[in-house]
Amino acid sequence: MQTSDFQEFVSKRRYLIPLALAGSLLFATAGILSIDAYQHQMSLPVYLQSFSTPQISVEELASGKLRSVVLIDVRSPEEYQEDRIGNSSLLPLVDIESGSGILQLKAILQTYEKTHQEKPMVILYCTSGMRSIKANKQLRDRGYQALTLTGGITAWRKQFGRSQDLSVLATK
Fold first, then answer.
1. In what helix (H) or strand (E) does residue 148 lie, and over which residues does it extend?
2. Residue 23's CB: how many other CB atoms inside 10 A?
3. Taking 80 as the threshold, does the pLDDT of residue 44 lie above it?
């Protein structure tokens, strides 16, 4: 190998090491995010979307800081029948995605506003957060503001039993 060929080989190679390092870092980050998404029982795209979704923790919701709240369960009717948080309303994600849920949400909010004379904060929940994050995006795309209950009904039930729901939420 001539000196000029060797120098050309070395100069091309010096770009390969940083490129390999960047690729390895990207691969490792994707792996870590995928594992974290799996632990949160979410797909990677929904998990990434959760970073930009307005959320409220069980502790914050139970603290009573929000005066006026409407809880919306975005799970299936069967899941809603099994267990729900307090007097939450059922509005399945499939209805929100199809558009028919928007009319239902308008009716729920109008009824609340007539009864309480104030505009409520919409809190969405599902089992662990995946569907409520999707529902939140759908509602934001249609001009609504909502919060997602972090950890869903699973996180709520870790702190409160069914018999406690109404007393915890009584200040709402």
1. strand 146-149
2. 10
3. no
Determine contact, residues 58/159, Cβ cutoff 8 Å. yes
Whether 124 contacts 149, CB under 8 Å: yes
76-92: average pLDDT: 96
Q: Which amino acid is at 163?
A: S
8 A C-beta contact, residue 61 and residue 131: no
DSSP state at residue 75: S
pTM for the model stands at 0.74
The dihedral through the CA atoms of 56, 127, 84, 137 has a sign that is positive
Q: What is the mean pLDDT of residues 74-85?
A: 97
**Shortest CA distance to 137 belongs to which of 76, 60, 54?**
54
| Burial (0-12, 13-18, 19+ Cβ within 10 Å), 151 | buried
Query: At 99, phi and psi to the nearest 5?
Result: 100, -25
Domain boundaries, the chain: 3-39, 49-169
- Using CA atoms of 50, 54, 59, 61 in order, give the dihedral in degrees to the nearest 10: -130
Q: Map residue 79 onto helix, strand or coil.
A: helix
CATH of domain 49-169: 3.40.250.10
Among left, alpha and beta (phi > 0; psi -120 to 50; other), residue 129 is left
Q: Which amino acid is at 12?
A: K
Predicted confidence band at 64 (pLDDT cuts at 50, 70, 90)? Answer: confident
